Amino acid sequence: MPPCPGQRPGWFAALTMVAATGAATLACGNGTSAANTPPARTLRVGVSLGVNSLASQTNGVRQIAQNITAEGLGRVAEDGKLEPQLADNWSLRDNGRELLIRLKPAVKFQDASSADARAIASLLPAAIRNLAGSIADDIQSIEPIDPSTLAMRFRRPEPLLTETLEVMIRKEEGGASTGAFMTSPTSPTELVANPSYHLGRPQLTRIEIKAFPSVRSAWAELLRNNIDMLYEVGSDALDSLEGATNVAVFTFTRRYQYAVVLNNQSPALKSKSVRRALNMAVDRTQLVRDALNGHGLPSSGPVWPKHWAIAGAAQAPEFNPALAAKLLKGQSLRFTCLMASDPLYERIGLELKRQLAAFGVDMELKSMPPDALYQAQRIHEYDAALTELISGPTFLRLYGMWHSQGAFNYSGRGNATIDSALDGMRNATSDQQYKQAAPLVAAAFDDDPGAIFLAWSERARAVSRRFAVPPPEPGSDVLRTLRLWTPRNDQRFASRN
């Protein structure tokens, strides 16, 4: 059973005792364990990838390595705007039909070749196609102007095309990118410092990534000082981690949210009125408190709540039990909700089932392996599906997940109302029009709901205090400062983050 909010689970105390016992045993033996004396400036990272196959674990570790080693021309800030990364700056010309991109000087790929305008222009078309799907059709050309400048020509002004600058730049052959770390030639689970990194060589020399079957097992190794960091910690373990004195915990809100995708072709959920009522019947604040132990941000709609075009304005729908009861009165609503076989999803599902039951709605929960859940959505044979979807912080990502032509809409999510609103974002020709279109997207999901958006998920990185970690910008992931992390030479732990 998961712990109650604020209650320390038994495994935390047990693992702490194991770690203390192990340390005492080593002290009475021949000194310090080799595992407790890692090579200087090496960060050992543990990732929980479940009890998947070895191939799945290898792919998971490889994906994490790619996230650390690659960069884009720009990166997305907390407010949904792009800020320069590989690019020094960019500007729109010709009434929004051309984007002129000026690169940072003397940037090299990790294979020591020049990351100049010609090289990047050759890699962008395929990379943008993978990220943006059919939106890439509106790019007329990408050409170098000089070694440090390239131009993207558009068939029409379109703001979502500028948002594609976040795409990771990586060579197809060899996989070289421009990040502060690069994959070791001897192992895909080891990263080494990029000596030619354009912002200066990282303080760490090596990162070792190791997969574990659970957060518990990785946490035990962190307590024993056999690893230095837990890559990602979910809401189940956050309360326990925050009790440790030798670990700094850095929390952040992910750009993903838990949602119940509603199949509007299902007989039970065809009615827009019914889907609206289901949205109004859910108390998201209570769900975050009871199902997520308080570790999440209640959803108010599909749009990233910090997005500059929304500016913190409340989005519909809100908890409205009176109207929900009125819309559902006299109906005998029953449907099945699919979800992954996972304790967290089960807890969310049970809380949601309890809340809907108060309105006479019978939601049957059905757990299944992730692959089976994916297949059921892909062939559209489901009523509803509890899942976690990327929803921000840009409208490009929202378009990819919900537009019928979106690059990541593998299951036919959404409807014509949502398509029309998202197309309005594409047709905006100024910041003012973009800002006017943003709330219309939220309104479209309210008018013809494609999902019950529940909560933005909270995660954490847990790092041994053996390392000095610069604080991240408010709300952002601490991994953005990774190149600046350093071991503490005096082995003393800093004050708690």
Structural class: alpha+beta
Number of domains: 3
Q: Major sheet, described briefly? A: 11 strands, mixed
Summarize the amount of helix as a percent range. Answer: 25-40%
- Overall pLDDT score: 86
Q: Might you state the CATH topology name of the largest domain?
A: Dipeptide-binding Protein, domain 3
Task: State Rg.
Answer: 24 Å
Contiguous helical run count: 14
Structural account:
Strand 3 and strand 4 form a beta hairpin. The N terminus and C terminus are likely disordered. The protein has three domains: 108 residues, 3-Layer(aba) Sandwich (D-Maltodextrin-Binding Protein, domain 2), CATH 3.40.190; 99 residues, Dipeptide-binding Protein, domain 1, CATH 3.90.76.10; 203 residues, Dipeptide-binding Protein, domain 3. The protein is of the alpha+beta class. Helix 12 runs antiparallel to helix 13 and helix 13 runs antiparallel to helix 14. It contains 14 helices and 21 strands. Strands 1, 10, 11, 12, 13, 14, 15, 16, 17, 18 and 19 form an eleven-stranded mixed sheet that branches. It is 31% helix and 25% strand.
Describe this protein with a few key phrases.
single chain; 497 residues; alpha+beta; D-Maltodextrin-Binding Protein, domain 2; Dipeptide-binding Protein, domain 1; Dipeptide-binding Protein, domain 3; 3 domains; eleven-stranded mixed β-sheet; four-stranded antiparallel β-sheet; globular; disordered C terminus
Write the layout of secondary structure elements.
Layout: H1 10-28, E1 42-48, H2 54-69, E2 71-72, E3 74-76, E4 82-84, E5 87-93, E6 98-103, H3 117-132, E7 139-146, E8 149-154, H4 159-162, E9 168-169, E10 181-184, E11 187-193, E12 206-212, H5 215-223, E13 229-233, H6 235-241, E14 247-262, H7 272-280, H8 284-291, E15 296-298, H9 321-328, E16 334-340, H10 343-357, E17 362-368, H11 370-378, E18 384-390, H12 395-402, H13 416-426, H14 431-447, E19 451-464, E20 467-468, E21 486-487
Parallel strand pairs: 1-12, 1-13, 16-17, 16-18
Antiparallel strand pairs: 2-9, 3-4, 5-6, 6-8, 7-8, 10-11, 11-12, 13-19, 14-18, 14-19, 15-19, 20-21
Helix pairs in contact: 1-5, 7-9, 12-13, 13-14
